[in-house]
Write a structure and sequence with these properties.
With 324 residues, the protein is of the alpha+beta class. It is 20% helix and 46% strand. A hairpin with a 2-residue loop joins strand 4 and strand 5.
């Protein structure tokens, strides 16, 4: 055997360059053969996994909770056969139906037959695949019963402003509530939904945009996004000393407040449109009565136009009630 191999190599005048050319020629020939054979048409059994989607089954989810394998004998190229088999482990094909197409078996279970599959063969297997016949006779899908309720939308914000700028109001969103759909046990613990983080940095003017609503597993949203807007204004800080007055005290009683004065830093729109010195603060008698600590927080009695916000020092005041 060794002598035979030696004679063969000797007859080919074997050397390194000859082997390289021979290997490349062999590889090229194999590639041409493979491409030619894969381009030919073959009949074979193909399997596609699918889920059903139907938007007009009243009281049911729009997407089936299960998927089914569709098996058919098809005629197509070798390329398509390999591609279909490789895709079997990927996400199922979603096939849309109208309510009249799906037949109800019982409760949440609906089914389709070969007839409906034949009409959607090109969506399942592709345009260049000829389906000879289906092995799958009837496919059953579960469309779970679905409840719905309306919940508020909470924007998640990360805002920062340039010095001497602020927002006079909270961010406005539209819509501020959304209807959610799902199985009752999924909806039971959902009382609100949140947006994706809205990040706005170094604001010196108003801003607006769109933010997606965070998805919740097992819950379908009527709206997937909200529109938001926020006003931004320039302000100046003005510090004033104000007197804290009691309010609503019965005629036969007297309420003393300690300290009786406070320092207030007003944040006002620029340019100024009113005199912040006219602002007055008070502590309500009812707040004092309902306070266990006998300490209260003053609230504005009158606030001039153009005041965006304020800080009062101290924040908490001690009150003493006496008889007249």
């Amino acid at each position: 055997m060794k002598r035979l191999l030696y004679k063969l190599l000797h007859s080919l005048k074997h050397n390194g360059r000859d082997w390289t050319v021979f290997s490349l020629s062999l590889l090229l020939a194999f590639s041409i053969w493979l491409i030619h054979n894969l381009s030919l048409n073959y009949s074979d059994f193909l399997t596609v996994r699918m889920t059903a989607v139907c938007g007009n089954l009243e009281g049911h989810a729009t997407r089936s909770s299960n998927s089914c394998d569709v098996v058919a004998r098809c005629r197509t190229s070798g390329y398509n056969i390999i591609k279909t088999r490789l895709a079997l482990g990927s996400a199922p094909v979603e096939l849309s139906f109208i309510g009249q197409t799906l037949s109800e078996k019982s409760g949440e279970i609906f089914y389709i037959t070969r007839r409906e599959l034949s009409e959607s063969a090109h969506l399942l297997f592709g345009e260049n695949v000829e389906v000879e016949y289906f092995l799958s006779d009837t496919l059953y899908f579960r469309f779970p019963y679905e409840s719905h309720k309306k919940v508020p939308v909470f924007p998640v914000m990360a805002l920062s402003f340039e010095p001497q700028y602020m927002s006079p109001d909270n961010i406005e969103i539209e819509p501020d509530s959304v209807t959610i759909y799902g199985e009752p046990y999924h909806l039971a613990n959902v009382d609100r939904v949140f947006t994706e983080p809205i990040k706005l940095q170094n604001l010196n003017s108003g801003a607006a945009g769109v933010a997606r609503i965070e998805r919740i597993k097992g819950v379908r949203l009527a709206e997937n996004e909200i529109h938001y807007s926020i006003d931004v204004m320039r302000y100046v800080e003005i510090t004033r000393e104000v007197t804290i007055n009691p309010s609503g005290v019965p005629a036969d009683k007297e309420m003393m407040i300690y300290p009786s004065k406070a320092e207030v830093v007003f944040k006002c729109v620029f340019p100024l449109i009113s005199d912040v010195g006219q602002a007055t603060f008070q502590i309500e008698y009812e707040d004092f009565i309902n306070s266990r600590s006998r300490k209260c927080i003053p609230v504005p009695e009158y606030m001039p136009d153009g005041v965006l916000d304020y800080e009062i020092v101290p924040e908490i005041f001690e009150c003493v009630l006496t008889e007249k």
